[in-house]
Amino acid sequence: MKSIYKILAIVVIMSTAGCKKDLEKTPIGIITEGVAPTKESVIFSARSAYQLLSNSLNIIGEWGWDDGTVLRNDFILQDIASGDMQKKWNPDGDQAWMDQFTDFSFTSSNSGVKGQWSYDYAGIARVNLSISYLADGASSTTLGIDENLRKRMLAEMYFLRAFYYFDLVNLYGDVPLLIKPLANFNEAYSVAVREIKENVYIQINKDLAEAKTLIPGGKFSDAVEKWRVSKGAILALQAKVALYKQQWPLVITIINELEGLNYYSLNANYFDNFSIAKEFTDNEVVFAYDHQSNTSPRSGNGLNALLGWGFIAPTTNFINAFEPNDPRLGYTVTGQDVYKFLGELNGNNKGNDDAASNKIYIRWADILLWKAEALNETGSYPAAIALINKVRERARLTVNATGTYAPAGTLPDRNVASTDKVQIKAWLVQERRVELGFESQRFNDLKRWGIAKTFLTGLGKNFQDKNYFFPIPQGEIDRSGGTITQNTGY
Amino acid sequence: MKENLTNVIHLIPTKLWPGLKGIFCIIVVAMLHFSASAQADTNDKTITGKISSAQGEPMSGVTVRAKNTAKATTTDNNGDFTLVVPENTTLVFSYVGFKTQELSVSGRSAIQVTMAVMENTLNDVVVVGYSSQKKGAITGAVASVNMADLDKRRVPDVAQLLQGQVAGVQVTQSTGAPGDGINITIRGVSSIGSSSDPLFVVDGLPTTSISFINPADIQSMTVLKDAAAASIYGARAAGGVIVIVTKNGRKGKSSIDINYFNGVQQVANLPTMLNATQYMNKMEESWNNSGNTGINPYTTDKGRADLANTDWLNELFVLGKSQNLQLTASGGSDKVQYLISAGYYGQNGIVVYDNDQFKRLSFRTNVNANISDRFTIGTNLQISNSVQDKISSSGDAPGVIRHAFLRPPVLGVYKNVSDPNYNAADPFTDLPFYSQNVAANGGRWNGGANRYEFSSNPIAIANYTNDKRTNFKTFGSVYGEFAFLRNKELKLRTNVGIDLNMNHNKAFNKNYGDNDGYTSNIPADTGQGRQNRPTNLSENRGQDITITWTNTANYTKRIEQHSFSALVGTEFITNQSSVIGATRSRYSNPNGSFQYIDFGGTVIYDDQGKPINTPWNGGAAAEWALFSIFGSVNYNYDNRFFATASLRQDASSQFAANNQHALFPAFSAGWRISKEKFMEEVSWISDLKLRASTGKLGNQSGLNNYNSLAIYNEQGTLLRYGNPDLKWETTNQNNIGIDLSLFKNKISITADYFQKKTSDLLLPLGLPRFVGDVQPTLVNSGTVSNKGFELAIGYRNNDHAFKYSVNANASTVTNNVDKLNANLPNIFGQVSKTEPGQPLNSFYGFKMVGIYQNQAEVDGYLTGAPHPEVKPGDIKFQDLDANGIINDNDRTYLGNPNPRFSYGFNLGANYKSFDLNVLFQGVSGVEKYNDLKKIIDYDTRPFNHTIATLNAWHGEGTSNTVPRSTFNDNGSSRVSSIFVEDASYFRLKNIEIGYSLTNFFGKSKSVFQDLRIYVSAQNLFTVTNYTGLDPEAYNMFDQGTYPQSRAILFGINVKL
After folding, report:
1. Chain B residues inside the 8 Å CB shell of A54
2. Residues A238-284: pLDDT tens digits?
3. Which of A1, A70, A402, B712 sits at 20 to 30 Å (Cα–Cα) from B544?
């Protein structure tokens, strides 16, 4: 019998021995550990933080319509929600979630609500990673990154973080505030709490102030890559934050500083802002995402693909908002062509998911109207009206999309003598709507002016007080295990 | 000799060496032991005898053994035997299917024995985990399938044989396309992130697929359903285990068996589509209902003379053909038994043209050799080659079946020769012939303005399908078994198996279709047809090899009324796979003899037409290994009390750092009440046994090689956080059962109740989006439970010339998600939602309550928001929160895709030379999402519809079920109860009638021993309310699949 035990022992032991290392397989084809940053990867990290501002398709996921991640949702959350735009020329059941911004029936699981949140926070995560590389001057030097370049990229990152958070507070109110990369998986839950929006604003202003000290002067911060954040963009965003906070004198001070730089002026032709041919040679654009065709990886404008699929139509109310013969209407929408998006006065880019037309975020006319608003609020009526008239004048003198000029009497000057603050404000509201139509400013404007409810219910929409903020995406509440809370009313 | 051995050893991979050393030790020890025990007995006596059946026929191949010795022989063709045995010994006579008899020699030298057919199956030997057991001693939930009945199923895939046979085993075909997969689920789906498929063990070799096996080669199939039976297979056994043993030769006369059948298949259960006139009227109506102004283009088109009237379904489906040839030779002597078989199965499916074929050629060699009384070696080896023409059998694009439904009947199959786009090489219609002028639209196609929509021509798709999937497989093992100790109580067995797959996929996609005005910077692409533009070839070859090496020691002992057996063993499995592939496009000559990589264009272009890269080539590899130790103990007292315990430990290369070992224990017990004294009076109960079991099973199928690890991109950006604690899913399963036989075993009943709780579900935990765009990390969390009752009843009556048997089985499964994760409270699918308290993947959406009959009803119902888009005739959904707005908060549960009740009913009968076999099978209590109905009848595009839409709402009071026809959204774009249908069905799966001629030419000529001719029919009728093509199709989201066909086969079976 003893030999039996020996046999058993031999079978078990011999088969067991040596197998331990056979079970350790080296992963094939994946990188399982973070690699030390290199000069290239650090520069790439800064560049990639811009990407979430683009209208390129599928920056996040692949055709994630259900997550709202096919492309950035500004046009839905601003232009459709404000009643200027409707989903399609021929209403149908396709992407019904977009229609829910038309009738304010969206819930916290709406794709648009989810998508914008995902885009802004994905941008913030990339910014935070980049800052974690760039903040340490010594190690950047070791990597061979020029100190001026490091400071400039750091400034860009601070600006972008402010930009993304500014979008988030306007849309959602209190939001989680993350300013550095997560150390591990579990930290996602310890940071899952909404910061009150005042504190988010403090961070925004801090980032912008930091950016301002680090950014080099000049209209462009980089002679080649003109799309990068510039000093002008930083000042402009500071002004916009002040505007939204109704810090009127501060708005005027900052814009005066910006004017003093002499970088920008109104283009003679309204369409030069949007023309692919005039990109970075025009006078007016302060900050835009530079879409380009045929790059690898792709960086084209995908919004034009949607135009080809019948998406994006004006509402009658929006078209009616234009005064007779206003050339700006034709540039905004002619037939089923939105020239502002197409970047050319033809439909060739319609259906092109890799178009070169830029996405304009901040331009001079917008800034002038901020100043006009601040001046009006502070009682400087003639100066305010003058700025409004300046914008109107440029519009009326622009050759319209069909190549003819508007007849005399088009877009007449507003009465410079008016001291009626309410009247001037109404002119301003009107001017912003048509000047910046389809440029994803409108819904924020309606909200900050406090007229969203009056205006939208006037259009027969079911806007309620809770809609001053969008709901926090239900997924975020779920994924945090409930430590992220919902906005009131949702 | 020593040198040779050393050479051999050098050839063995180093990783196998340590274990092989162990085996060599065993061999050496075994030889020594063997030689020591081989000693002659004295006082021997020669016994002769004759063995016959109850009918008086001599029986050959009966084993005659002197009890408790190794002395044995088998009877010859005349039923005679001669055996030298010790005096006064007892002889044991055994033959499969007959009662084993014992007879004391008591001084006689010639004996006559009549063997009786065994009606009690309790002594049948059932192959279970790494060993076999008598059926009567089994304490787990184990079902062995009656292969005699399954011989009458003429199916290509072994898995189909199980359909309707075993309570609790759900078998579904993914589609009806030849060669498409079969799905088996045992006791319900129990996982979200892992497969719930069972593990297959074929001749001792674990594998995940059995479709390569030739059904005719199978000896037995045993389903191990509960933990007690399956847990010895550890981390891969949570879905249950199906043990398959292939046939082997027997001692006695050689036999050759030839079986050939040939048959046809026909599509069944198609809906009726609108004809051209009905279609144009319907489109006219939809256009009018869509708020359009101006002249209705359909009204104008109705008058055209060039409208076709095509019945696309009729064009698509033709008669399919199948044939099968099976040759089996078997036989053996005392020393060697063999079975050699060759099989060919070929099917050309029901879709037009010959691009939906499946062919399988298989060869099998099973040999056992008794090297000595104590030492057996053998091999079971199959080589097979299968080729499937992969047609687009389900899904959306290209979806040959789906497009046959969508394509308007006004379009012809072929272009008219006068059509300016006519091309003799591609005569199929594509874009509607009266489509808008592309040139007038700036050279671009405007899909939205098209009146007959962009469906593809399904006949053209079928014609141009050229996608071959070839699998060459070598599957099998060699084994050696040594018996030790005086009564051979200890058996050591080593088994080395290989599962080698050589895959070759080749798809040549030839350009066809109409030029849609597409312009490209690459001149060659401009002006080409819109399908497969440009012509391209995609080809890849893969190799996947699994080596399994199993060693077991099995000890059995009987001391008076105590018998016990113990098993210990180890198993080492290693897998390596790799794939290499390439694509080329722009073939200047797309003919068959040039459809190879070398002849394609060697440059690819960017969007501006600049050559940017070399052609695409790819390759990848993966590997994993699994090492296990296991053991089990069976104890049996007096065949009254039974107990079994087993334990397995698995270690896998796929397990995460902090969970390297998995332990799976199980315990079961049984009590044969019928053997108790107090039951002796109850004569009508032949056998009654109670069983209970509990144990743990694992499911590691959701763990791929590296999914516990963090991954980064090349720039160092984190793409996914890792989880070093990741582990397998664990299933705790309890089972109680009863086996009951009545009236001398005429009636047998088996009933089981089980509870299966799967915890540590693998869930992809998406981090909150505010941490950025990272892929979900897999975590173990959540619980799913399945509970059910299973019943199998058999009745057999062989008392008269009309012999018949009835076997029925039924099972219930109740599925429930008990728990998910605090950070993942629910999981949304395309049309479903999974959350605690509901079954897995429950359909979730809006509930239709009717059709709005007039504007007042709309306004009275939708009070919460303006609703200009909702018109009378649209679908009215339930407003669950009664706030006057229909939004996401009004969604609710609409159905359950998990089958709740399944059943099968087998009837076998024979009278004189006729035999009959019938199988009914069905499912009751299951829902499917009929997405095909959605796109045919409810889409906003001008596709063809079924005649159901002729009853569409067209004014107040006309319909409360079918909404108005419109090109706008009438509410049907929402996921709703309209498309959730009861997919219960009852199907006559198979019926076969045979006529047998025994000893066809008389004994003397004996060319044919037996000849049987038969006719067989499948899917003769189906009773269902489901309006989709096939209620049986596996997908819960039914986009229109290649339907199962009705088949009639004729066959002949000859035994030589």
Report:
1. none
2. 999 999 999 999 999 999 999 999 999 999 999 999 999 999 999 99
3. B712
**Cα separation of A14 and B418, whole Å?**
80
Where are the alpha helices (H) located in A135-247, listed in sequence order? 137-143, 147-172, 187-190, 197-214, 231-244
Per the CB < 8 Å rule, is B866 touching A461?
A: yes
Measured between alpha carbons, how far is B894 from B838 in angstroms, rounded to an integer?
11
Radius of gyration for chain A, computed over Cα atoms and rounded to the nearest angstrom:
26
In terms of phi and psi (left: phi > 0; alpha: psi -120 to 50; beta: otherwise), the region of B638 is: left
Question: Encoding tokens for residue B323?
Answer: 């044939």
- On whether the CB atoms of residues B232 and B224 are closer than 8 A, the answer is no
Kindly provide the b/e burial profile for residues B463-499, where b requires at least 16 CB atoms within 10 angstroms of the residue's own CB.
bbbbbbbebbbebbbebbbbbbeeeeebbbbbbbbbb
Q: Which one is predicted more confidently, B117 or A439?
A: A439
C-alpha radius of gyration, chain B, whole number: 33
Q: What is the C-alpha separation between B202 and B477, in angstroms, rounded?
A: 10
Mean of per-residue pLDDT scores for chain A: 92
ipTM associated with this complex: 0.88
What's the token pair of residue A191? 């940071």
Annotate B610-676 with DSSP letters as a single string: -EEEPPPEEEEEEEEEEEEEEEEEEEEETTTEEEEEEEEEEEETTS-TT--EEEEEEEEEEEEGGGS
Contacts of B721 in chain A (CB under 8 A): 184-185
Q: Quick one: B925 exposed, middle or buried, by C-beta within 10 A (0-12, 13-18, 19+)?
A: middle
Q: Are the beta carbons of A16 and B869 separated by less than 8 Å?
A: no
In this prediction, the residues of chain B whose per-residue pLDDT falls under 70 are: 1-43, 54-56, 96-97, 117-123, 149, 433-450, 604-615, 999-1009
Dmax over CA atoms of chain A, in Å, equals 117
CB contact under 8 A, A18 and B620: no
Q: How many CB atoms lie within 10 A of CB A65?
A: 14
Question: Which residues does B805 contact at the CB level (< 8 Å), separation at least 6?
Answer: B794, B795, B796, B797, B906, B907, B908, B909
**Rounded Cα–Cα distance for residues B665 and A336 (Å):** 69
DSSP secondary structure code for residue B769 in this structure: G
Name the minimum distance, in Å, from the CA of B16 to any CA of chain A.
Answer: 9
Lookup: tokens for A464: 């309620």
Contact criterion met (CB below 8 Å) for B551 and B563:
no
Which whole-number Å values give the CA distances from B697 to A251, B190, B364, in the listed order?
Answer: 68, 12, 33
| C-alpha dist (Å) from residue A233 to A163, A239, A244, B86 | 10, 10, 16, 108
Q: How many CB pairs under 8 A join A and B?
A: 240
Residue B1002, phi-psi category: left (phi > 0), alpha (psi -120 to 50), beta (remainder) = left
Question: pTM value?
Answer: 0.83
Question: Are B864 and A462 an interchain contact pair (Cβ–Cβ within 8 Å)?
Answer: yes
Chain B hits for A93, Cβ within 8 Å: 940, 968-969, 972-974
Q: Do residue A178 and residue B771 have CB atoms under 8 angstroms apart?
A: yes
- Which amino acid does the sequence have at A396? R
Question: CB-CB: which of A15, A22, A129 is closest to B551?
Answer: A15
